[in-house]
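User: Could you write out the 3D structure of this protein bound to FE2/S2 (inorganic) cluster? I've included everything you need below.
Assistant: Certainly. Input first, then the structure.
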Amino acid sequence: MKDVSKLILEDGAVQDRRIYWDQDIYEQELEQIFARAWQFLAHEGQIPNAGDFLTTRMGEDNVIVARQPDGTIKAFINSCPHRGNVVCHADTGNAKAFTCAYHGWAFGLDGALATVPLEHDAYYDAIERPRYAMHPVAKVESYKGLVFGTFDARAPSLRDYLGDMAWYMDTFLDVPGGIELLGPPMKSILNCNWKVPVENFIADGYHVGWAHAAALKAIESPLSPLAGNQAYDVNTGLQVATRGGHGFGVIWDAAAAIHPEGGAFRDWLAKRTPIIRERLGEWRSRFYNGHWDASIFPNCSFLYGTNTWKLWLPMGPHNIEVWTWTLVEKDMPAELKQMMVATNMMTFGTAGMLETDDGENMEQCTGSNRGWVTRRGKLYSGMGQVREGRHPELPGIIGKGIVCETSNRGFYRRWAELMSGRSWEEVAREPRSAPNREVA
Ligand code: FES
Ligand SMILES: [Fe+2]
């Protein structure tokens, strides 16, 4: 295993450029991160009934996620244990069994090998069927409707893995009726390293007024004055890095700000806020009205407010597939949900105005490292490091204002921890406290 101890320096603020380019580092990510960490698989509402399934990926492994007759959810690798063929070619559907197109082995909803053509005549009944079940995802758990899986049986529980991020995400997950992810997901390809969009979503309030200046003007929403950083109050909001590499930034009172026709959403927020305050307290009622840019380690991101939900699926060190759903509250009226979908498509869909701004930058940020000399350099995300600290009431490390890189550093600290190959127990024994400085 490659020694990665020098790749992330200065408490997460300095990254070696090779982590965005080198094949051997990428292979180590597949082994140490994607084969160990919990990854987003689905929202329970996408597969509500027995036999409902969808196909997705964990790292570069294709998986089937299926609702079982007893209501639980199982996942297994979508590759036939006979000769390796892809067993299920559909994105989603309802099935009683999965049958391989090559020689006809059939598997139950739980991945067990159920029938084998010519079992008696050709195998002489000597095949040990339990040995040839589809390879299971070791653990599948859900948190308030969000389903995650890990290949590592020794991984902590999903709740422990999410840590303080779960407390923050309850803001929109723990609403009456819960949430929905509206799809099918838009899918596109970007020629960038998977970490580049994750860091963009987890921490990059800095680029918004600059990279999106033209789009912000064109959209003609309450966010338009940010264009060109003309009227960007960088102190409105804060950034949070939670232990475990998850984090987000929030702009206060801006949940509906990107929507040109945001009136119905603002009315919805006003109506629901007293309920959220009652249920979750003052702070989270405030977060409920904020606009968030967020990532869940390793490769799931979302913007609460806009309301886009993303998976950045790695396809090698320089390429990803982007999957985009629309996040809505289940109890929202149908017209409001439709408005959410429309704004998400206009902003962060495949051809969305902000998506294309970001995509171009993300591809160039990756591609420049093709240069042998270039990639011996370092990158810097130290913004706000001298001002971050603890908050009297909020968990995690708090960065001051929306324009800082506190949660970016948290992400890279976690990346370095897992890439070192240390066990979950070893990593957990090193609790990280915020710098001893109060950030209000
Ligand atoms: S490869 Fe699937 S049955 Fe042979
Ligand atoms: Fe952006």
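Residues 263-280 form the longest helix (18 residues).
User: Perfect, thank you.
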